[in-house]
Amino acid sequence: MNSPHEINVIKMKDVSKVYDNGAVALDNINISIKRGEFVFIVGTSGAGKSSFIKLLLREITPTAGTVTINGYNIKNMDNHDIPYLRRSLGVIFQDYRLLPNKTVYENVAFAMRVIESPRRLILRSVNSVLDVVGLREKYKCFPNQLSGGEQQRVAIARAIVNNPAIVIADEPTGNLDPETSWEIMDIFQRINAAGTTIVMATHDKTIVDTMQKRVIAIENGHIVRDESIGGYGYEI
Amino acid sequence: MKFRTSEYFIKEVAISLKRNNWMSLASIGTVTISLFILGLFIIIVANLNRMASSLESQVQISVYLQDNITKQQRTTIEEDLKKLSGVEAVKYVSKDEAIKRFKSRLGDQEYLLTALDNTNPLPDAFEVTVSNPNIVKTASKTIEKFKGVDSAVYAQDVVEHLFELTKLVRYIGLAIIIFLAGATIFIISNTIRLTVFARRKEIAIMKYVGATDWFIRWPFLLEGIVLGFIGGALSAIFLRFAYTTLTAKIYDMMAFFPLIPIHPFLTYISIIIICSGIFIGALGSTISIKRFLEV
What we know:
The structure holds 2 protein chains of 2 kinds. By secondary structure, chain A is α/β, with parallel strands linked by helices. Chain A has one domain (37-59, 78-227): 3-Layer(aba) Sandwich (Rossmann fold). Chain A has helices spanning 49-57, 82-87, 104-113, 119-132, 148-160, 178-193, 205-211; strands spanning 8-18, 24-34, 38-42, 64-69, 72-73, 89-92, 166-170, 197-201, 214-219, 222-227. In chain A, helix 3 packs across helix 4 (119-132) and helix 4 (119-132) packs across helix 5. The mean pLDDT of chain B is 83. In chain B, strands 2-3-1-4 form a 4-stranded antiparallel sheet.
């Protein structure tokens, strides 16, 4: 369980991931991420970034080594605990993954309803996170009535509505123009300032270079660089 | 389960039944037909069993005499029969009496006897009542060896044939039922798969935000159960109708035919059928949803 004394919310020790077809996605990874950190995961496509993200979400388990997230050892954990691990994580994807037949409000509330939160709490929390992402007025809109940036803000609201300890974002600005991307990054900064750990996989050089946060670079399944204040480091 | 949550589940089920109305109807239809046949077989087997056991409890042996024996011989046979252990009563039925009884049993259909041209094909006989059904078999074997006795017939013969028939019906029924149950489960699981497939994105999001598998599974499971229940209830109604009609018809013709009385037999059958429907529905949806839960 997540004890307040545990500062490392994510810890990987000697982690390797080899898929059934023999492809080595990650090879002997060692990292720790502390509570409240803002971390970029960079690397070219196929470098192992998505496997890294999938491990954090416990979509896959490591072939060797241990991955501890919010106190859960994801390899040995009981299947019944997986939903509870995921409740401590907020996840954001490049393609937003909103439900098209639900309004903004319902999309965000959905994340609370399916973990059986009390209705009164849902109303309060959803309104408050819609304030955080600046979409309170558009709560009745359906996703197709929103711009890409707005849809991603709804997805962020959904990710943080259950107060996760860690927000995991997989290329969240990948489909957005630069200006909109900065709006998204601004929201992430605010969420991070409130104490939430953020792990963001990205290709966006400008964002990484400008933000001056910790950067973990993965190349061919290895961590080739881990700088506490770093830049993107690749030429595009 | 919290009230709010069950409300959510019920809503989900109603929406998806409406959305897949044709598939839902098809599922209900196949459940109904399959369970109706299942019920029919149960009813037939149960009735055959009952007939067999009601015959089994009859402790009478009919001893048919050869045609050409003398009165003296007949008296000897009667005395020998009375001497057998376990024999309680021996009653002589002459061939005249036998044909008279037969006529009255035929009732309206007495005219059938005219085909015999007033000859009497029935033999003279003794009706031997024994004290205990277990000795019927050995007693009749002994009796058959008496001089002047043509044959000793007891219900056991019929009973054995009935048991064989019951067994056969049971095997055929079992095979048909297994086949139908498989088909029904397949159709239900396909119907539910449509719902699951239409909502796979929703399911994936539910998994990501930490919904438990059971929370995700319930609406689909419930949908299968509802389909199975409706099918089961319908076939229970049809079975009730069929059995009451049929028993009325049979009693009209043969008042003492040993059929199982409608109450409480049909209630048990209904319970079995409806429970099977629910089980089949639940199984069908469990199969179809399993794959989509692996995120």
